[in-house]
Amino acid sequence: MARIGMGLVGAGFVGPHHVDAVRRLGFVDIVAVAGSSDASGQQKALALGARRGYGSYRDLIDDPDVQVVHNATPNHLHAEVTLAALASGKHVISDKPLACTAAEARGLVEAAGRAGVVTAVTFNYRGNPLVQHARQTIAEGHIGTPRFVHGHYLQDWLIHETDYSWRLDPMQGGASSALGDIGSHWCDLAQHLTGLRITEVLGELTTSLPTRKRPRGARDAFSAAGDGEVEEVAITVEDLASVLVRFENGAKGSFSVGQVCAGHKNDLVIEVCGTASSVGWRQEHQNELWFGHRDRANEILQKDPSLIDAEARPYAHLPGGHQEAWADAFSNLMRDIYGAIAAGQPYRPLPPTVATFEDGYRANAIVEAILDSAGQGGVWTEVAR
Ligand SMILES: NC(=O)c1ccc[n+]([C@@H]2O[C@H](COP(=O)([O-])OP(=O)(O)OC[C@H]3O[C@@H](n4cnc5c(N)ncnc54)[C@H](O)[C@@H]3O)[C@@H](O)[C@H]2O)c1
C-alpha cells in the first residue's frame, strides 16, 4: 500500500490524538506539525515524532510530502486553514465545529466540492462500536419509530472562575461556547443515530459565570489554572443551555449542555425512545448499551464483537470484556477516512462513521438556530437547510 503523508495544524489537546489515531493505521507518515510559532511547531513536532515542525500552517500546506491536513486549531482558524488546504488540493480532516458560523461552513462545503478531495469533520462519537450497533438497531426498526430523543452533554472543567479557555472568547470560539463545543457533538449524534434531521429548536442559554479570571499566558484546553498572573474578563457566551428539538418525522427531543456541572467529566448521554422500545448510550460507560422494554425485562448489551451487528463489528477490535474507549473510536474514524484517501476516490459508499462537511454545516446551522431562538426569548426557530 502506498504511504500517505499527514500534517497536523494545532497540537494542543486534541491534535496529538489525531496523530495517535493515524499512527495506528500503519501506512500514514507523520510528516509535519504546525504550531503558533516556529519554536512551538518544532517542539511539538519533536514531541509527536513528526519529521518537520513549522511556525506557519501555510508552510505545512506547501510541504509536498503532506497530502492530508488535519485542522485542530481553535475554532476561529478552522475556516482559513481549511480553505487554504483545499485551495492547494490537500485532503482535509477538520475538527469540530466545522466553522464559527453556518455561512462560513457553507463556504467550506462549496470549496470542498470544488477541490474534489476527501474531507471529513471529527464527530468522533460515531466511531464507537456500540453507537454503530445502536444506529443499525434503529435503522432496522427494532425499537419502532423514534418518538423522543433526549439526553445531555455535561462537563465540569469550566466550573471555577479561574477556569478559562479560548472557547469563552467569541473572537476565538465563535458566538456560542458550550453549544458549539459539545452541543454540536450531541446534535450530530442524535441525527446520526436516528437518521433524522433536527428541523426546529427552542433554546435557553445561561452564562453562569459572567466574569472570569483569564491567565495572561497561553494555556491548552482542559488544563487546570496555574498560579500565574490573571486578569478579569467579562464573559458573554453560554456555559449552560437547555434545548427542545423537533425532528423531520415529527419526533420530539430535548437536551442540556453545560461545562459547569460538577462531577460530569465528559458525560454525553443519548437515548432514543421508539414506539416499541428505547435504546440509550452513555459515553462515560461506552462499552454498554441499554435497551428499555415495556413488556419484558430491560437489557444491557456489553460490547462484544460476537454479539453486535455485523455492520458494527469492524469497529470493535477487542473481545468482550476488554474495554474500548474514546481514542479507539477516534481511530475508527481515521481508518474510514484514510480508506477513501488510500483508494484515491471519494467515499464509495460513505462509511457511517464519517461526518461530511455537509454534516458539519448542519451542526453549525443547528447551533445558530438555537442562538437565534434564545435571542428572541425562546421561540421555536427553524434550522436553515
Ligand atoms: N473531536 C473532539 O472530541 C474534540 C475534542 C477537543 C477539541 N476539539 C476541537 O479541536 C480544536 C482544538 O481544540 P483543543 O482542545 O485541542 O484546543 P487547544 O487550545 O488545547 O489546542 C489548540 C492548539 O492550536 C495552536 N494554535 C493556535 N493558533 C495556531 C496557528 N495559527 N497555527 C497552528 N497552531 C495554532 C495552539 O497553540 C494550541 O496548541 C477545537 O476546534 C475544538 O473544538 C475536538
Reconstruct the topology from this structure:
Layout: E1 4-9, H1 15-23, E2 28-34, H2 38-48, E3 52-54, H3 57-62, E4 68-71, H4 78-87, E5 91-94, H5 102-115, E6 119-121, H6 129-139, E7 146-154, H7 170-173, H8 178-194, E8 198-206, E9 211-215, E10 230-234, E11 240-247, E12 252-258, E13 267-274, E14 278-282, E15 288-292, E16 299-302, H9 326-343, H10 357-375, E17 381-382
Parallel strand pairs: 1-2, 1-4, 2-3, 4-5, 5-6, 7-12
Antiparallel strand pairs: 7-13, 8-11, 8-17, 9-10, 11-12, 13-14, 14-15, 15-16
Helix pairs in contact: 1-9, 4-5, 5-10, 8-10
Bound molecules: nicotinamide-adenine-dinucleotide.
The shape is: globular
Structure annotation, total helices = 10
Mean pLDDT: 97
Strand fraction band?
15-25%
Uncertain spans: none
What sequence of helices (H) and strands (E) makes up the elements? Answer: EHEHEHEHEHEHEHHEEEEEEEEEHHE
Question: How many beta-strand elements?
Answer: 17
Structural class: alpha/beta
The hetero molecules present are: nicotinamide-adenine-dinucleotide
Order of strands in the sheet with most strands: 16-15-14-13-7-12-11-8-17
Distance between the termini: 40 Å
